[in-house]
Task: structure prediction
Amino acid sequence: MLTGCSEDKKLNANASEPVTAPATDANANQPADTAPIDPPAVDPPQYTAPLTGLAQDSEAKNRPIAVMVNNFSAARPQSGLPNADVVWEVLAEGGITRLVAIFQSYTGSDPIGPIRSNRPYLIRIGDGYHAILAHAGASQQGYDILQHHGKDYLDEISNAGAYFYRESFRKAPHNLYSNLDKLRAGAAKKKYADTVDIPNFQWSEAGATANGEAASKVVIHFLLKDYKLSYLYNPSTKLYDRFINDKPHTDLTTNKQLTAKNLVVIGAKHKTYDDYGRLEIDLESGGPAMLFQDGKKVDCTWERGGDGAIHIMKDGQELPFEPGHTFYHIVPMTPTFEGHVEIVAE
Result:
């Protein structure tokens, strides 16, 4: 009994002492004081989208498709613009603008539209990407180029109506839509080439405007005073948010505001050649330009390269875009190029 009491006292004494777990290691075969093994390095993606510079898991060789998108007030908000690698904005008749949305890396089936007619200078924008052109009708000069100069095109009116559709929630002509599944099926039916040599552009995470002028707000004036396009730089996203008449320009499908990583404004000679107000726009001769990135602006020039694409240059060198989506804007040279752009540094 005395022995038992003695053992109980020892047990009680031990119970009051903190218990320390033995040292362990994530790798049972390694000594406890060995530093943990770093996880294996992950190789960066091998491929980048040629028109955004963004990383992707596989090499996307899809031929670009250039869609002529309606930008009349009755056509907004449009569908599909956030999925475009590049969007061009250019004057059409009456002072309103038209959008040319270039799709290459996106492979989904979201709707695109409303889709409108083609013009010679819109064809030339698509040519810069060796793109298939998607539209609904064209001017007389436009049809002459399409039909007699070997262009690959899908026209809802003349040769590809089955690959477009009308929506009931809008009135014609602001209700024509398609999607990439339909357009690529139409291109395959017509046996258009499904891959092409896509022009090369320069890409850099650092961009080209580190020493540029502050430009947290950019206002672009085309012709109509009641049509004001503006962008506000968002430091948290490092993107420019797009507005029309001071209201967010949104996507109908997602209800999200349109954004861009790079903004480009280029000056080109405009000429009205008929009573309807149709335009000729010189997209061959080069001219002044402005590049906006990271809330800053750099003055530069544009020129059409031997690959057919328009490149942004300074001092004889091509300026790099930051990986992401790019919005281009073509404004007249009169009365001045600079007069079409208002910059606010906040």
User: Anything to note?
Assistant: The chain has a mean pLDDT of 89. Residues 48-344 form a domain with the YerB-like fold fold (CATH 3.50.90.10).
